[in-house]
Amino acid sequence: MLAPVSIISSEPEPVTPDAPVVLRRPLLTQQWLDLTFVHWAVDPAAVAGLLPAGTVPDTFDGVTYVGLVAFRMHRVGWLRLPGVPYFGSFPETNVRLYSVDEYGRRGVVFRSMDASRLVPVLMGRLGFRLPYVWSRMSVRTGEDTVGYTSARRLPGPRGAHSRLVVRPGERIAEPTGLEHFLTARWGMHKPFFGDAGFLPNDHPRWPLHRATLVECEENLVASAGLPAPTGDPVSVLYSPGVPVRLGRATKGPPRR
Fold this sequence. Notes:
With about 260 residues, the protein is mostly beta strands. The protein has four helices and twelve strands.
């Protein structure tokens, strides 16, 4: 049985498959390509202490989730400048949780962000205070599968790794409520001057495919301070990707 966890008084905003706010002046532009989303259910009480102050676990039918998300970051660009072709393109694998703040904004909280380019890792850690780590990584597309590998370099822990292979199926005509909940996240929460900052994003609606998990060997979830997954994941999804815009981190109520 899942242990109870305290909730925030504001009603969470609805889960919407389309971004609720269009960013007129994005801070960053990029593309997220060849994404695989693997999710396991987790007790909200087990992760509540890992979220920034001012947020609690976001839940779907009383359950929250830990996600392992592997993809290719492509051509990260600042403001309206063209995306950078080399330093702005690299494999990435994230361990993330689901959060809601006192204003009802739903988001994600990153526990680790493995990336293969050292310069973006340093910029992410120093400029945005995000948990980026430098790893040796690859994304390989086969005849009917997509494979992702990651082996931690710095700052560790040594031996943290993942290997995922998925077989995408047909495109989903209408995602379920849970599938929207796990993918339609329009911002991230992060510590921000002693409270929770919110960094919004917008992008077109996800093109989603259900996928078969052919291989999964990983310890990134446990290395991020979470209970190691047991059993099969509750959801495995694939997307060819979307163009994305990210805004500036803000503290306080939403600005409409």
